[in-house]
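Continuing the series of single-chain predictions for the mutant panel. This is the parent chain; the variants come on the following pages.
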Amino acid sequence: EIDSKLVGFSLYFYAYSTWEGRAVYMEDIYVQPDYRGKGIGTKLWKSVVGAGLAQGCTRCNFQVLNWNAPSIDYYKRQGATDISESEGWLAFRMTHDAMKAFVKKGESASQ
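Parent structure:
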């Protein structure tokens, strides 16, 4: 907040890694365009990482779109690793309709 105006936010939650234990997942971080480049995003990210550390998290996971080169470069400079490169992880999503269809598959057949 600057002068009672919301200029950015971060959204995160806790998850669990089978291999490393508790993790914090940063779902989103956003700073309004007029306020970018002033360290606000860094402060928001540090607050997410700090909250994770306070809860005993062993890592901070997040995603970034492949066209967002400035952010990718920034994250890497801060010590983040692109695990799609280093570990081969791929991101998948199942839409609401696909979820419903998946749950219904085979319901009439004996399981």
